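Entry 14. Structure prediction run on the chain below.
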Amino acid sequence: MNEPYGSSARDLDLNLFRVLLAVADTGSVTGAAAKLYLTQPAISAALGRLKIALGAPVVAPHGRGIVLTERGAQIVAEVRPLLDGIVRLALAPPRFDPKTSERVVRLGMADASDEWLLPPLLRLLAREAPRMRLVCVPIQFRTVAEALATRRIELAVTVADDLPRTIARRPLFRGKFAVLFDPRFVRLGARPTERAYLAQQHVIVSYNGDLRGTVEDNMGRERDVRCSVASFGSVGAIVDGSHLVATIPGIVARQIVKQRPHLRMAPLPLPHVAGGMDLMWPIALEADDAGRFVRDSLLEVARELGGGSALPRA
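Output returned:
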């Protein structure tokens, strides 16, 4: 490929022009060296390289200092605003435009949350940020801190206990547990009693891989647990057509009933506090415009869904 300005263009370096501007401002090699924190021989060598590249001298001796030649003065006048513009561009904060951004954001999501949170989030992004992309990975309370700290993910939607100070969090959903059942096989009614609830056979979600859930560990009740699974994703199919009931976060129960309208949900007839699912991100990414945009989008989706909760085990 032909070079439009000849082989001498390969010898040009923006730093050479910075040296020339410093010489023009100070009127001497010594002054330019002090301004740029370089040695005097380095300044002289740069001026020599510029002379070779341009095919003409840019400075000339004048008394104890140097002055610009006509060619040098012309270059200084034309190059100074260009270099100033480059510096301003480099130091300006990055501009983020969701309409054109092609940023890929890595999002960690708790069990089953992708089924009800991800679809409305993707619809929002399709409208507001059509070229942004998400990489969603499963996450839970035991692994979220490490995943955020190592930047395996940039955002997380899950529950967590204590987190390091390097991680920020904001409540995303709040709500109580609900009882999910198939009324064709289970007689519980719209507001079951504690006795009727405990008389049923139960399926629970346990990340510990045992037969104990939040009812046993946090509410002090023992249930007839017939099955323990590791994911909320299978609960709807298990309850459908069976005598088993599930105690799950209300927002998860609502989504299952939407998909299986013949199932029913009822309030858990045991005293318990509302649980929650949080939005988390590394504090180091607080100023990241793309991350903030996705965080705000998640909060907007949460408001549209009306809130809810997710707890580790049910």
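Residues 1-7, 308-314 have pLDDT under 50 and may be disordered.
Filed with the rest of this week's runs.
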